[in-house]
Amino acid sequence: MADVRRLKQNRATIKGQMTRINNTVDENTSVAEAKVKSTKIESLWEAFQEVQKKIDDARLEGIEVAADEEVLPTAEQEAERQIFENIYFEAATKIQMVIDTAQAANQVQAQVARAEPQNEDGRRGQGERRMEVKLPTLKLPEFSGNYNEWLLFKDAFTSLIHENDTLTEIQKYQYLRSSVTGEAFQVIGGLATTAANYENAWDLLLNNYEHPRLLINTHLSQLLDFPAVSKDKPATMRQLIVHVRTHLKTLETLELPVDKWDELLIHLLKNRMDYNTQKSWEEETKKDKENRPTLENFLTFLNEQVRTLEIIDKTKGKSEASKTPAGKKQERKVALATTSQEGCVLCSKNHQLYRCPDFLQLSSADRLKEHAGGARRSTIPCCIQSKKRRLQPIKSPEEDASKKAVVMHGTQETLQDTEESSSVINLGRKPTSCVVLSTARVIVHDVNGGQHKCRALLDAGSQSNLITQELIDRLRLKCKRRDEVISGINRLQTNVGKTVEVKIRSMNADYEVAIECLVLPAITERLPQVKINTKLICLPESLSLADPDFHTPGTVDILIGAGLFWQLICKDYIQRPKGIPRLQRTLLGWIVGGELLDASSETPRSFCGLITNAQLQAQLERFWKQEETLEKRSLTQEEIECERQFHESVKRDETGRFIVTLPKKPGVKLGDPGNQALQRLYSLERRFRGDPALKNAYVQFMEDYETRGHMSLMGPGPDTSTKVEQSYILPHHPVIKPDSTTTKLRVVFNASAKTSLGTSLNDKLFAGPNKQKSLFCIVLRFRSHPFVITADIAAMFRQILVCEEDRDLQLILWRSDPSQPVQIFRMNTVTYGTACAPYLALSCLERLAIEELERFLKATLTVEEMKMFLEIRLKIEELKKFLKEALDNKKSEFLQAILVLLEDFYMDDVLSGASTIEGAIALRQQLLELLQRGQFQLRKWRSNDPRILEEQPESNDDNSFLKIDKEGAMKTLGLLWDAQSDVLQYSVSIEENSRVTKRLVLSQIAQIYDPLGLLGPVVIIAKCIMQSLWQIKTGWDEVLPTELEATWKEYYRSLPQTNEMKIPRNINPGNVSNQFDLVGFGDASEKAYGAVLYAVSQRSGGTLQAHLICSKSRVAPLKTISLPRLELDAALLLTKLTEQARKVYGDRIQNVSLFSDSTVVLNWIAVT
Question: Where are the annotated coiled coils located (predicted)?
Answer without folding.
Answer: none
